[in-house]
Amino acid sequence: MRILLPPSETKRDGGADAPLALDTLSFPSLSAARSQALAALGELSTDGEAMMRALKLGPRQSAEVDRNRGLPGAPTMAAIDRYTGVLFDALDAPSLDRDARAFAGRTVAVHSALLGLVGALDPVPAYRLSHDSKLPGLRLKAHWREPIARVLDDEAGLIIDLRSEGYAELGPAPVRPGSVYVRVVSIDGDGRRRALNHFNKQAKGRFTRAVLERRPDLDSVDDLLDWAETAGISMRLGEERAATLPREVELVA
Questions:
Q1: Residue 197: CB partners within 8 Å, gap ≥ 6?
Q2: Domain range for residue 176?
Q3: Mean pLDDT rounded to a whole number for the chain
Q4: Are 119 and 232 a contacting pair, CB within 8 Å?
Q5: Per the structure, how many domains does the chain have?
Q6: How far apart are CA 56 and CA 253, in angstroms?
Q7: Model-level pTM?
Q8: Which of 67, 123, 161, 181 is geometrically suited to a Cys-Cys bond with 17, CB 3.0 to 4.6 A?
Q9: How far apart are CA 119 and CA 81, in angstroms?
């Protein structure tokens, strides 16, 4: 089983681990693409004003420029602890016990715009880059789409894609029976479905925490839906999507 999480714009500062070393990261086939993205961000970092424009930063976010400039020697921490924001606050990874964190290390990947897919416990620095950011000489969608799609195609077992659509386009999950895209919805009294925004992220964080705490053995979509029912989580198959997209599962918040 592989759970795919989106990253967050916001990240914790600091860290106790050594600076970023690409050979410590999961999915080593992405190393070359990671090096290229880091080099492009480093080039952009030489011009603070250009970086502010490229990353769509406001005047109060100028510290993000310093973060990116300091990447080569910046301390690292586990990816699942680095990211903050609604999803990661609901997940609350620092409070997970040792077994849950170990399970996260085996099953969870976070999709970084800078580093591609990283394992939940991979040591990463704080940085600023989004799926729609512009880097000199490098288009993120074109850069990451095929390498990440190949990695995911090689993944055995169930893939549960909790990424935003923007990140899913940066590296599509395979279209096969054991690969699903999770959409968070609410259902009103008349049975009408409505996609959620803020609570979308919160529901994904809570779902991921429930999986890590209970550590189910899920091999198929049926396993996922059956387990969700026993765990008190409302999930169901969504509407059919285009043949080129993974099947959708609705998480009802």
A1: none
A2: 2-252
A3: 93
A4: no
A5: 1
A6: 31
A7: 0.94
A8: 123
A9: 11
